[in-house]
Specification:
The protein has 120 residues and is mainly beta. It has 1 helix and 8 strands. It has a 5-stranded mixed sheet with strand order 2-8-7-4-5, with no helix packed on it. Strands 1-3-6 form a 3-stranded antiparallel sheet, with no helix packed on it. The radius of gyration is 19 Å and the shape is elongated.
Length: 120
């Protein structure tokens, strides 16, 4: 009975040790996190470690006051399988937060955010 209990416990531990590497992880961004810019960027480019489903993914920009600037994503054929590109409207000076949500091809929704500053 003890060996059966140990086998079940080992199975539970191994099941819980499934790596999260299958989820989409942000590898690089343009503009970069905490960047200091002197001009509004034309695009936000996010590069992930694996393919994402672009039709179910999006980017938005939020200023210090909570105002959201629409950032429509580019056509899927204009991007690589691992990237998400969003057109950026002209932004005002200040701190901007890039908020993104992607649908990984493993079926998981992954979200994240980072900031950059647009100087006068």
């Amino acid at each position: 009975m003890t060996s059966l209990r140990a086998l079940v416990l080992a199975g539970v531990v191994l099941a819980g040790a499934t790596p999260a590497a299958a989820h989409s992880l942000l590898l690089a961004s343009t503009p970069a996190a905490n960047a200091q810019l002197t001009a509004s960027p034309p695009y936000v480019v996010l590069r992930f470690n694996n393919r994402i489903e672009k039709r179910l993914s999006h980017v938005r920009l939020v200023d210090e006051r909570g105002t959201v600037a629409t950032a429509p994503t580019a056509r899927a054929e204009d991007q690589t399988a691992e990237s998400l590109v969003a057109a950026v409207p002209p932004l005002t000076t200040g701190v901007w937060r890039v908020e993104w949500q992607v649908f990984s091809t493993d079926g998981h929704v992954v979200t994240g955010s980072y900031q950059f500053r647009l100087a006068p």
